[in-house]
Amino acid sequence: MINWCKVWVAGIAVMASGAVAVPVDYLREVKPLLTEHCYKCHSASQQKGDLRMDTAALMRKGGKNGASFIPAKSSESLLMQVIEGSHADIERMPYKKPPLTTVQIALLKAWIDQGAKAPADEKAESTKHWAFVPPQRAPEPEVKLSAWSRNAIDRFVLVRLEKEKIIPSPEADRVTLIRRLSLDLVGLPPSPAEVDSFVSDRSLNAYEKLVERLLASPHYGERWGRVWLDVARYADSNGYSIDAPRSIWKYRDWVISAFNRDLPYDQFVIEQLAGDLLPGATLEQRIATGFHRNTQINQEGGIDKEQFRIESIFDRVATTSTAFLGLTVGCAQCHDHKFDPITQREYYEFFAFFNNAEEPELSVATPEEVARAKDTDAKVVAYIAALSTKDAAIEAKAYAWEQSLTPAERQAQSEAVRQVFDTPLEQRKEPQRLALLAAFVDQAPENKKHQTTIAKLRATKPKITTTMVMQERAKPRETVLFIKGDFTRRGDLVTPDTLEALQPMARGTNAPTRLDLARWIVSRENPIAARVIVNRIWQQYFGKGLVETENDFGTQGLPPSHPELLDWLATELMAKNWSLKSLHRLIANSATYRQESRVRPDLAGLDANNKFLARQSRLRLDAELVRDTMLAASGLLNPAIGGPSVNPPQPDGVMSLGQVKRAWTVSAGGDRYRRGMYTFFYRATPHPALSVFDAPDAFSACTRRIRSNTPLQALTLLNDHAFVEFAQALAARVLKETPSDDAKRIEQAFRLCLSRKPTDNETRRLMDLVASQRKHFAAAPEEAKALAGQGNQNVEQAAWTIAARVLLNLDETITRE
Amino acid sequence: MNAEFQPNWLRQRTRRHFFNQCTMGLGSVALASLLDDRLLGVPSPATTNPFAPRASHFPAKAKNVIFLFMAGGPSQLELFDYKPKLIELNGQPIPQSFVEGKRFAFMGSSHGSKLLGTRRQFAQHGQGGTWVSDLFPYTATIVDEMTVVKSCATELFNHAPAKLFLNTGSGQFGRPSMGSWATYGLGSESQNLPGFVVLQSGPRGPRGGAVNWGSGFLPTTFQGVPFRGQGEPILNLTNPRGITAERQRETIAAVRDLNLGRLVETGDPEIATRVAAYEMAFRMQASAPELIDLAKESKATLDLYGVEPGKPSFAANCLLARRLVARGVRFVQLYHTNWDNHGGPGETLENDLPKVCKDVDQGCAALVKDLKAHGLLKDTLVIWGGEFGRTPMGENRTATGRNHHIDAFTTWFAGGGVKAGQVLGETDELGFGVVRDRAHVHDLHATILHLLGLDHKRLTFRFQGRDFRLTDVHGEVLKKMLL
Q1: Out of A109-118, A239-248, B91-100, B399-408, least confident range
Q2: Omega of the bond leading into A94 within 30 degrees of 0 (cis)
Q3: What's the CATH code of the domain at B132?
Q4: Which residue has the higher pLDDT, B287 or A612?
Q5: Inside any domain, residue B59
Q6: Whether A488 and B103 lie within 8 Å, measured CB to CB
Q7: Is B226 within the bounds of a domain?
Q8: What is the distance between the alpha carbons of residues A502 and A517, in angstroms, rounded to a whole number?
């Protein structure tokens, strides 16, 4: 703090006499002033004008405009000229901020005139923000309550708790533990049999065995794959206003499989960013590059395509930095990052890595299927080509048809056909004439006969699954810096390069590619990548990360709550060859994770937000898991893994909210009951039961979901027909599988939803409910029939459907305790 | 099972002790409504209801907003911005000085590039002599309630991004819409309805769909709730088959009892919020049908709007909007399509623009008059406008049309602290650009928030390491618009 009294006296003295009465203390008076007003641009993180001001020596050395001051000559000192605003060329400082006060200016003047004295050993600011310094592996700390600790995580957590004099919470009971572990590791609740088996397992390593069983389950890949798909902004449609469906589910299958086979995280990143560039890239590695094809595609008429190609690269840059580096680079699109050491130039150098891709659709069909499809296409083309020899007038008819089209109809044609329209008739070449003919034959009502023939031909064509991938262009595009981020304002030419704040990139002789970028990201020298993924996984288990700003490890983010633990985990991940399953194993087995989640009144003042982890947290299930849990409880779940997206029922009218009304044909058979992650996701009109529970919108990378708690969620679980169907199925299941004893049935239904047994109070409340509903429905058979559907057990089925509906609506059912 | 493993040092709480200690309360939505007296007398501080009314930054002029969104970009040159010079130069090429350095939609195609004078008749109306064309006879009767801003400007000329820009201040997805910011800042006065409601009419939904009223990075609690034009106004409001109101009440009561048991067991305030959310859901099931039953309105009111009960229309949505703000809903947004008059079939200035004008004209005027009659206009800001305007040059097709224009278009405001009976801003003699009092979308946002008592620079939300605002780093309050 500045001694304001003294400053005032000094200022007055200076102003009054021009002489200096009181010696100015640099460290106590000058330096704090400079820290507040100058360091943001002229210190460790930024050096505008190549000037650093964080030591007097550095100021004297100066920047490109020369020394900041000349001792004893304040009027000739640049610093005084710029803060007074009297310099001819340099704007008044602080730049675009209010000027310093007269007293502050007087203080600096006095300090310079007194000789600008400063300690000789003054240290410059550390140049590195914590996240840009490689993680250091600290030794596991000594703790008093060492018996509580199960692994290194616990020691780091406990040492902090002991410092705060907080005792950790006890271990949760076994039923809570198996439900927690099952939901966290595979995203499904345990069956009552699995609960019984775990609770009665008296072996010392019962818990560890359970962790291993769940990690080996193929559903693990679904659960953690879905977490990654949030980051990848996965969706099944193109977005923007047209929002046409797309085929990229093979990428989703790849993600699930990558988790299941524990593909090391470094390889996981490399294959998604640049699988196509790996030597001898496999089909799977090319499919992985779908990661960056999850950008939107604008199919609106009249757009400037280049503009939206560039938008998609902006998104790729933003997603790459958010997903893997935990950095926000978006602001550098238009100007140098205000807070983090990322310049606009660096942004476009980063951009250049992604500016050289083609964006094809990759066929994943067998060669035989491809050959058959090609053969069919050739037959269709031959048929159409032959028409003009049979009917000399047909080309004239086609042209007349072209002329008859309304502007909207012209707009609706494929791009190839629109190009034909834009070419004057006499200049059209053979393929263009053929393209017009094909459009005419396909669409004009007068060609019904041909259309029938062609449809028959096409019916024999095998359906070729494609998936969207990245592919490098042979001839690189030029990349320029866009002034203010506006693609029409081209600035300097730039070449691909990484961010200077992180480690330098190993360079070969050729210009670096996406593959070099990917390898640079997961290089062991990268200080940030391992921390980011460790933190993201941690936050799934505890509700928030060790770094709470999981998407900003830069200077504006929050520092880690347990820095040594974060670093230890990051180094451990790398030491275990980037095995994510090892990391899961470590966290899931820790005593920290196993604690009860009960809110502790004793911590209300000390740690209300549970930063110190003296307990677990209750977490509302993710949208897909709300569905999955109820499917599992009701016995309807189809546990099939992977494949194309499906269309479970949704309320009427949802699809009409988008600009283009699209059909939603409810999937038949088992596809009606697939896990929520397979629900077809239209960006413009997402399934309401997903959106209402905060599934991300897939417009940009989502690194943490909101957990809202709204009346619309209540209406969904209460009244959405899909959820009523779950309640009916749960009721039927309990009536069928459990002997006709209300208490036993309540216990079974309770266990199917919540894993635990009901308390006496809960049993009594539900018994009362069933009894009153049974009585009611017996007197109201029409209502019973309406709720129960067909069958001769209407009253029982209806009464139990009410009870099942209560259970499916409980907060606890959709919560991981 | 649980009880056996209870650690004693955490189990020394009785239920009474818990409720005495518990400060998170049970939400301001009182639990007593479900008739069960079990919890009467339990204090319920309003800490968990996200819509609990919150104080504004300074005294507000407007409590509520009704935004009449004319999706597609209405032609200011056929409606409000009268340009005799453009009529005079009809059919002539554009003077080069007007188009240099500008970008237009459908660049490089063979669209019209000659000036197009309007064929509508214009007249001055009201005490301020506001110009309005013959397409808006009803609107012409309320000009003395409005500030007509002829100098609006935006940045994006394709529908979806431009709409997003007008709603969220950004053409990129992921930012919160105006209504979300307003309910985030102020909460809502309504206990029985969501704070931000969206109503739609016209042949299709607005381009971009739900992102236009999305909450972006704000909690989804603040997203607009799209009532539907027909059938259930809110999804899942109707009980399932076989569930009567009584069954529903008993179901929710049982859910509530079991949830409260768990609340006592865990102490997690989220359970209290969920109990309150079920209460609100139940109330909405009861309140929303009454809300949408327009048959209860007098014949005079129905005639004022031109509404037939049971038949969805823009006018019916206007009446619904009045009923919503009267019930304390903070932000109501109406979308009406289609104003995209390019000149093609269904999009002509000759035949189709008059139709869409007729769709909205009477409803808009009726809304302003009706709000005034109910004493609601002084507290309710009514806004009429689209995502951009249309070009002074015409598209020469069989009929005429105009292209998207971002440099000058018209929006009007009424009520809620807006100066009545004035025109703000002026465009050049052909309507290409603004020559006085430019009102950029960011300025409109700053002004709307200002009228709600919110400082657009202080209404922020920290996301990805930075404080975001509706106005990004721009926006000036249009002081001339204020009373």
Answers
A1: B91-100
A2: yes
A3: 3.40.720.10
A4: A612
A5: no
A6: yes
A7: yes
A8: 12
Integer Cα distance of A251 and A369 in angstroms: 20
Residue that has been written with the tokens 């062609």 in this structure: A454
Whole-number percent of chain A with pLDDT over 70: 95
* Segments forming the whole domain that contains residue B185: 64-230+312-481
Q: Are A324 and A529 in contact (CB under 8 A)?
A: yes
Whether chain B has a CB inside 8 Å of the CB on A618: the answer is: yes
A695-730 burial, b at 16+ Cβ within 10 Å, e below that, comes to: bbbbbbbbbbbebbbbbbbbbbbbbbebbbbbbbbb
Is residue A303 less than 8 Å (CB to CB) from chain B?
A: yes
Contact A716 B228 (CB under 8 A): no
Inter-chain touch A708–B248, beta carbons under 8 Å: no
Cα–Cα dist A318/A328, whole Å: 7
ipTM of the complex: 0.80
Over residues A536-555, mean pLDDT: 92
How crowded is residue A216: how many other Cβ atoms within 10 Å of its Cβ? 12
φ/ψ of B196, rounded to 5, equals -140, 115
Query: What's the total number of domains in chain B?
Result: 1
Which of A811, A815, A817 best tests the B interface by mutation, with the highest count of B CBs <10 A?
Answer: A811
Task: Identify residue A72 by its one-letter amino acid code.
Answer: A
Residue with tokens 């879905």: A226
Assess contact for B311 and B319: CB atoms under 8 A.
no
| Cβ contact, residue pair A773, B281, below 8 Å | no
User: What is the rounded (10 degree) CA torsion for A305, A239, A418, A416?
Assistant: 90
What φ, ψ does residue A55 adopt, rounded to 5°? Answer: -135, 155
Residue-level pLDDT at B220: 60
DSSP B102-132: ---TTTTS----EE----S-EEEETTTTEEE
Q: What is the pTM of this model?
A: 0.73
Q: Would you say residue A106 has pLDDT above 70?
A: yes
Alpha-carbon distance A813 to nearest alpha carbon in chain B (angstroms): 10
Contacts of A551 in chain B (CB under 8 A): 464-465
Residue B396 has phi, psi (to 5 degrees) of: -85, 90
Please count the other Cβ atoms lying within 10 Å of the Cβ belonging to residue A97. Answer: 10
**E strands, A486-641, where?**
490-494, 619-620
Q: CA torsion sign, A570 to A575 to A579 to A583?
A: negative
Q: What value does the mean pLDDT of chain A take?
A: 90
Chain A CB contacts of B346 below 8 Å: 408
- In the block, tokens 């929710």 appear at B252
Express each pLDDT in A429-486 by its tens digit.
888 888 899 999 888 888 888 899 999 988 888 888 999 999 999 888 999 998 867 7
pLDDT value, residue A393? 87
Answer yes or no: is pLDDT of A177 > 50.
yes
Alpha carbons A112 and A119: distance in angstroms, whole number: 14
Please indicate whether, in this complex, the C-beta atoms of A301 and B211 are within 8 angstroms of each other. no
Q: Are A660 and A242 in contact (CB under 8 A)?
A: yes
Chain B CB within 8 Å of residue A412 CB? no
Confidence label for A580 from pLDDT (cuts 50, 70 and 90): very high
| CB contact burial B127-137 (16+ within 10 A = b; e otherwise) | ebebbbbebbb
pLDDT tier for residue A15 given thresholds of 50, 70 and 90: very low
B212 domain-assigned: yes
- A526 vs A405 pLDDT, higher one: A526
- The confidence band for A557, taking pLDDT boundaries of 50, 70 and 90, is confident
Using 70 as the pLDDT threshold, list the residues of chain B that sit under it: 1-50, 99-113, 173, 203-209, 219-221, 228-233, 395-398, 463-466
Q: Is residue B143 part of a domain?
A: yes
CB contact under 8 A, A802 and B220: no
Asked whether A84 and A29 are in contact (CB, 8 A), the reply is: no
